[in-house]
Specification:
Radius of gyration: 20 Å
CATH superfamily of the largest domain: Glucose Permease (Domain IIA)
CATH architecture of the largest domain: Distorted Sandwich
Shape: globular
Distance between the termini: 14 Å
Number of domains: 2
Order of helices and strands: EEEEEEEEEEEEEEEEEEEEEEEE
């Protein structure tokens, strides 16, 4: 019952070259004649497109370099429907820049900001971009969450601080609810769909890199906290990024994608605490009353 590693995107690029948001994605689909195809993106009329088992998750931010007046303007684009925090650093000798590297910024949803101006064109310099979802100034409120599954059944396979995979900061207060594949997942709180991944299939046995290939929905709440609903079924996302959802809205179908020991829903509320996702405690009302998730 492992959580997908969704906290960070580290993208290295040659100076004056942009990072590709689709780098590492390999899609498989069939055409109208039933012929299978593979490419870095599906055709508009593709039937049931799916990312292959060794495909990488999509990027959440992109660098764009613009040469002007003897310097390189370094822009960062936020690809999500919610804020992100970014850090740009040099992986080798730091070039002269204003502001100096490492440069840090918070980027609003679906916008692009000028991060730094680098002197000259310095084609040999190397940069690394780290991007984390969420605003670092989020102040979560004490809210009661609804049970996120459309069923009266309740079985918690792993609670807060679970030894299997809930010992790190971003999952310490996560909960794994056992659920048969296809169980409808409900929004536990009002919010905006910030990010979603729907194209991965179940991992092959022994695929330890599958931790990055789980389908999920990330919902941004009005107080800046974010709920993550993970391990959804292939094609099991029922909402679109940017969509406003109400508490109780169907948002997906549970599954077994990513590094998972069995079908379940991984639910966690997170905040960005300075380029680091941290899970936070939450209150939830379940089928039989108030739920308690202590290990």
């Amino acid at each position: 019952m492992s959580s997908p590693a969704l906290a960070l995107l580290a993208a290295a690029a040659l100076f004056a070259a942009a990072t590709d948001a689709s780098a590492g994605e390999v899609w498989r689909w069939t055409d109208a004649d039933g012929t299978p195809h593979y490419a870095d993106r599906p055709a508009p009329d593709a039937r049931s497109p799916r990312r292959t088992a060794d495909s990488a998750p999509a990027a959440i931010a992109r660098l764009r370099m613009e040469q002007a007046d003897g310097e390189s303007l370094t822009w960062v684009q936020n690809l999500l429907d919610g804020p992100i925090e970014v850090l740009l650093r040099a992986t080798g000798p730091a070039p002269q820049a204003m502001p100096a590297l490492p440069a840090r910024a918070t980027v609003p949803a679906r916008t692009e900001v000028l991060l730094t101006r680098i002197a000259g064109y310095g084609a040999a310099a190397q940069l690394s971009l780290t991007a984390v979802p969420g605003h670092p100034g989020a102040r979560p409120r004490d809210v009661e969450y609804a049970y996120p599954l459309d069923t009266r059944a309740l079985r918690v396979e792993q609670g807060w601080g679970g030894r299997y995979s809930h010992s790190d900061a971003q999952n310490r207060h996560a909960v794994d609810f056992a659920a048969p594949v296809g169980t409808v997942v409900l929004a536990a709180r009002d919010g905006t769909v910030m990010h979603a991944e729907a194209g991965f299939e179940d991992a092959a046995p022994g695929d330890h890199e599958a931790v990055t290939r789980a389908n999920f929905v990330r919902v941004l709440h009005d107080d800046g906290s974010m709920a993550l609903y993970a391990h959804l079924d292939a094609g099991g996302v029922l909402v679109r990024p940017g969509e406003r959802v109400r508490r109780g809205t169907p948002i997906g179908r549970s599954g077994n994608t990513g590094l998972s020991s069995g079908p379940h829903l991984h639910f966690v509320v997170q905040v960005n605490r300075g380029l680091r996702l941290e899970s936070i405690p939450f209150r939830m009302f379940g089928p039989q009353g108030i739920l308690r998730f202590q290990p």
